[in-house]
Amino acid sequence: MNADSxxxxxxxxxxxxxxxxxxxxxxxxxxxxxxxxxxxRAPFIAALREKGTCLTADCVVPSFTNPNNLSIVTGAPPSVxxxxxxxxxxxxxxxxxxxxxxxxxxxGTILAAFASAGASVAVVTAKxxxxxxxxxxxxxxxxxxxxxxxxxxxxNGIAGVPAMVGMPVPSVxxxxxxxxxxxxxxKLLEQKRPDVMYLxxxxxxxxxxxxxxxxxxxxxxxxxxxxxxxxxxxATVVLTADHGMNAKTDAFGRPNIVxxxxxxxxxxxxxxxxxxxxxxxxxxxxxxxxxxxxTVYLSSSAPARDVSEKIAGLPGIELVLPRAVACARFExxxxxxxxxxxxxxxxxxxxxxxxxxxxxxxxxxxxxxxxVSEQRVPLIANRKAPELPAGRRWRNFDAFELxxxxxx
Length: 408
Ligand SMILES: [Zn+2]
Fold this sequence. Notes:
This protein is an alpha/beta fold and about 400 residues long.
């Protein structure tokens, strides 16, 4: 690197003095780690209680994957980087627009800035949907587990990934898709020793398995082994999550769903309101496009105050906020949020119309995220931070700052 520090989106980061690995564990409710430690399956992480740093941080609301991954790599909230979900409603175009394209990204990443300053940077993500956003304008290695076999030097900065990792490319709906990320991270550290690495998994396991159950502990035991290897190779390792995860069911495991578009259509007529669920994405099998956050666009026949009161009266709704209030509180870009923001309670998700959600792919009681109830996430490091400011509200998107400016 040719500088002592870089500045990105108004924040400064010291140059790494040893390889840095920031890990975003998708859907990592803190209780998953707690239970894995309690069962004796995560000895490396357990030892960090003495040797490392363990904080609890707040993620970005909506507590979804893309807004939070982009916050972590930009060190900034969605009001700065622009990515506040998978979809928004483009009023001018009259269409639901997918925000996976880097053209919707409004800020540079810490990863790209380090690469420009001469650091070697590598990014591995489980699902390909995040790859283009995370690797935007970044020189270096960037590939997904999902498309690892197709990686080329020209497009991804590396080829022959499955052979390097020593694992076949897993199914997109599997725990192995995340294991591939960790295995690739260890091999990259051994063979190329990047200065900065970002690893991002998928929440396939967390959507199915509650903290402490077999499949969850198996996942965290696997992760613990790889984190131990990264540590043994001399890296600074910081682990955080994009969001938490909760059961969204009643005591019998039946999903608690507020079909918000149906309720508003009954009250105001079809077409008077438009409910957008920013969790909707091409990979919906494990959550049926149901999460705890929605945004509602209104027409003149559906007055905001009246609609707000209507929604607030529905069982399972935690918050209904006008756009300006929601965007100030959750640091969201006003031009990509509807007239109202609706957040449901911990045990409830929001749907549009009953007929638009295919729940046939759910083979376990619904677990999901999106709300304030999934905002708490772990922020853990394998080194001590002796001079942490007292009383600071840590965010998951402080991961690089903690790593580079505070850890020993
Ligand atoms: Zn996620």
